[in-house]
Design brief:
The chain is an alpha+beta fold and about 800 residues long. It contains 24 helices and 29 strands. The strands form seven sheets. Strands 17, 18, 19, 22, 23, 24, 25 and 26 form an eight-stranded antiparallel beta sheet that branches. It has a six-stranded mixed beta sheet with strand order 12-11-10-9-13-16, with helices on both faces. A five-stranded mixed barrel has the order 1-2-3-8-7. It binds a DNA duplex (16 and 12 nucleotides) through helix 11, helix 16, strand 25 and helix 22.
Length: about 800
DNA sequence: TATCCCTACGATGTCG
DNA sequence: CGACATCGTAGG
């Protein structure tokens, strides 16, 4: 039977039959749309064609057909043979193009499909026994309409396990609770019955029942998006391990295949859009967070966290004791985790959907993408040429060894200044690319030659002034679109429904534009170009120097500058920001633009710790609304004790806002006295330590390494990036020999001298030094360390 | 297979 | 004790 289907696509799978798109019809039926005509292709140099074909024949690799297109030949293979063909070319040392693109992503990208945006397909209905969907058709043509599904059904889930040890082991420890949450559905499954259970609790007979009921429920409530927090690393692998124990018959995938864990541990659920939202939070959104625990991330993005924090030990205790009110608490705890995951997903979904549309990838890929992936596919989508292969490991190694100069940083004069004006370039590097047509194919063109092209003399490079390159074209598009959105945003009320959506769109464009410039210099890039990368930064330095020169001519004293922005102090009354912008922007080539960022009541630039002069990338500002903005200082670092951070912040506020150094000193004195009297709570003394590598690989045993060793001895998972809170104990010898885990310590243990000299005073002495304030007086001359 | 780039600071350990 | 290496974190 011939059917015309309108459906919202959610997922894509590739197998020997071709490509299958999955989705929901407008009346919410599950559909599979098979494109059996799909024949992927790749390119090799025409000169190698004969050889390649001969060798393919030898090894029984079937080339469906091929065409010669000048220098390159285009070869078509069945989807299932694509990976072989790519590996084959690589082994033969033949340069291939478009051969190593993952087919799921490439098909989606090339067809311009957008997740949850209506697609139309006409074709014959097919019966496939294994498919757990309502309708299957086979089609030759898929057409996208832009209408996006409003209010998709987002379903979040979360498991709790009970383990007597620190970390649950799927061999030993059961799943005790499973929560499923969406806007109008909530359920917690558990196999230990208790009285007066909340109405969302459903009792099952065993863990095995729990697993089956969980999967069945997920199938029945038809999620457009299925989401977990940390689910790629914990919940799903755990579920798989436990389900295997019971030979569970229930399957989540719509094509009835088993769930598979991919190369980067990411899991593909066939059918709905499934992703682990923590990946997006970590990779794209939250580059500046210490840790990405659900609680911390929720607080930051949603303004609310968990209602309670339960340790694994406590959960185990509550479960084994089994008091009804405590089991009810566990159920609630479980549900809240799923609820937060669901709300996080709702919150970031607009940005993810925008990126998906802009870049042309399934939402699953967007969610787990890094900046590199986003940019790569954005270029692929816009490129009409064959796509260069990913570099080999050897090539990446070579590329990494070559580095180039980056942005210019101007050393500040240390001290307090007021007031301060701040200017910065709007998207410096992207606008340089657009202004000067920076792209590999426009570099050192013969049509212009050095004389007529735009020249970067110091590098001996020039860029075409006649034909626009691919990268400048797409960057311009990004810049224009973002500017249009920002203009609308300016006139939109923040409470308007459209505001957050515009904001999301604007963010998506910003992310891609910002990463694009770095992508030229990225060793793993398909479009790597060393000279383009260094031309961009060289021009960046040229323009910030121009701005500095003009600012000084205009009547500003330039206090500090870093890469794309400057801080100045007006030297004469008429030297106002607006007039300066008019002058400088008339000199700058479009779309380059200097913007006035803000004015600050005061700014303190720190002196270098050793040697004279000011420290770069370390300063404090006071906004006109009396808020502190701190950059580079201990107070905003993740590896300092709370007491040092708090004290630094408080003292800066007293000095910048109240201009009262004596008051600041008095405050410092109370902190030091409290320290001496062991009145500081342990939580304020704990120093968070984290390692980026495996514990065994360290040549130097720093305090944080020592702390990680202690944590490991106690059986904690000290995986890379795990945070271990430690304190420094009283004693003699190296600091790293005096490390203790914070959780094993009491306020009696901490070393008063270390916390005084190495934490609190280290964080504040440069502030007092700027006012020639003698801290010795304050301490009663008891210091053993020089230099304060 | 690595996860975007370069610039910069400071803490601590190691070694001569 | 000073110079240098190792390491993590931050700015833009």
């Amino acid at each position: 039977m011939r059917l015309e289907l309108a459906f919202y696509p959610t997922d894509i799978a590739v197998n020997s039959d071709g490509v299958t798109l999955f989705g929901y019809t407008t009346d919410n039926k599950k559909v599979a749309v098979i494109d059996s005509t799909y024949l992927p292709y790749f390119f090799i140099p025409s000169a190698k064609l004969e050889d390649f074909l001969a060798k393919c024949k030898e090894h029984n690799l079937q080339i469906e057909h091929f065409e010669r297109l000048g220098e390159l030949a285009k070869l078509y293979v069945r989807p299932i043979d694509m990976a072989h063909a790519a590996a084959f070319a690589r082994n033969l040392g033949v340069d291939s193009f478009s051969a190593d693109l993952p087919l799921r992503a490439h098909y989606w990208n090339a067809k311009g499909i957008k997740p949850l945006c209506l697609c139309k397909a006409t074709g014959e209905t097919v019966t496939i026994k294994d498919f757990k969907v309502d309708i299957v058709i086979s089609t030759e043509r898929i057409e996208c309409v832009d209408a996006q599904l409003q209010d998709p059904n987002i379903v979040a889930f979360d498991f709790e396990t009970a383990s007597a040890r620190g970390y649950p082991d799927p061999e030993e420890d059961a799943i005790i609770l499973a929560a499923i949450y969406s806007k109008n559905f909530r359920k917690v499954l558990t196999w230990k019955r208790f009285e007066k259970a909340p109405d969302y609790v459903e009792f099952v007979n065993s863990e095995s029942d729990l697993i089956d009921t969980f999967i069945k429920t997920l199938r029945d409530i038809k999620p457009h998006i299925l989401v977990g927090y940390g689910s790629d690393n914990f919940d799903f692998p755990y579920l798989l391990a436990r389900a295997a124990k019971y030979n569970s018959p229930e399957v989540l995938n719509w094509d009835n295949s088993a769930l598979e864990i991919g190369k980067r541990k990411n899991l593909h659920v066939v059918g709905p859009i499934y992703f682990d939202i923590s990946r997006f939070v970590r990779n794209i959104l939250g580059l500046d967070m210490d840790q990405y625990k659900l609680d911390a991330v929720s607080k930051r993005l949603l303004g609310k966290g968990k209602r309670a924090i339960l340790t694994a030990k406590r959960i185990n205790e509550m479960w084994s004791v089994g008091l009804p009110e405590e089991l009810a608490l566990l159920a609630e705890y479980n549900l809240v985790d799923a609820e937060l995951a669901c709300e996080l997903c709702s919150k970031v979904l607009p940005v993810e959907l925008e990126l998906a549309k802009l870049i042309g990838l399934p939402l699953q890929n967007i969610n787990s993408a890094t900046y590199g992936t986003l940019v790569e596919w954005f270029i692929i989508k816009n490129s009409k040429s064959p796509i260069p292969a990913r570099p080999t490991t050897a090539e990446m190694f070579l590329r990494r060894r070559r580095s180039y100069q980056g942005g210019l940083v101007v050393e500040p004069e240390p001290g307090l200044f007021r007031p301060i004006l701040a200017f910065d370039f709007r998207s410096l590097y992207p606008t340089i690319i657009a202004s000067h047509n920076i792209s590999p194919e426009t570099m050192n063109c013969t049509c212009c030659g050095q004389q007529r092209g735009f020249s970067v003399e110091e590098l001996g490079l020039w860029f075409c002034t006649k034909n626009e390159g691919l990268i400048p074209q797409v960057v311009k598009d990004l810049i224009d679109r973002r500017k249009r959105i920002n203009d609308i945003l300016q006139q939109t009320n923040p409470t308007d429904a459209s505001f957050s959506e515009l904001m999301a769109r604007q963010h998506a464009l910003k992310y891609v534009a910002a990463a694009l410039s770095g992508y030229f210099g990225y060793a793993g890039s398909r479009f790597y170009d060393f000279n383009c990368a260094r031309a961009i930064t060289a021009l960046g330095r040229r323009y910030i120097q121009l701005v500095i020169k003009e600012a000084e001519k205009f009547g500003f004293k330039v206090l500090y500058g870093d890469t794309d922005g400057i801080f100045v102090q007006p030297l004469r009354k008429e030297a106002d920001a607006k007039t300066f912008l008019l002058i400088i922007n008339s000199v700058l080539p479009k779309p380059m633009e200097l913007e006035y960022k803000s004015s600050y009541l005061a700014g303190l630039f720190f002196g270098k710790k050793s040697g004279a002069g000011g420290a770069k990338k370390r300063y404090a500002l006071l906004t006109e609304s009396d808020n502190l903005i701190l950059r580079g200082l201990e107070a905003i670092r993740g590896d300092w004790s709370a007491i040092a951070k708090k004290t630094q912040r408080e003292i800066l506020h007293i000095i910048l806002s109240e201009n009262d150094v004596d008051k600041a000193a008095t405050h410092l004195k109370t902190v030091l006295t409290d320290l001496k009297q062991r009145k500081i709570p342990l939580a304020d003394l704990a120093i968070p330590g984290r390692l980026r590598r495996a514990l065994s690989s360290y040549a130097i045993i720093s305090p944080r390494v020592a702390a990680a060793k202690l944590a490991e001895e106690k059986g904690y998972g000290t995986g890379r990036r795990a945070v271990v809170n430690y304190i420094i104990k009283t004693g003699t010898g190296k600091i790293s020999d005096r490390v203790a885990l914070a959780e094993d310590s009491t306020p009696e243990d901490y070393d008063i001298e270390y916390y005084t000299e190495h934490q609190v005073l280290r964080a504040v002495y440069k502030i007092f030094e700027a006012f020639n304030y003698d801290l010795e007086k304050l301490k009663g001359g008891q210091t053993t360390i020089q230099g304060y």
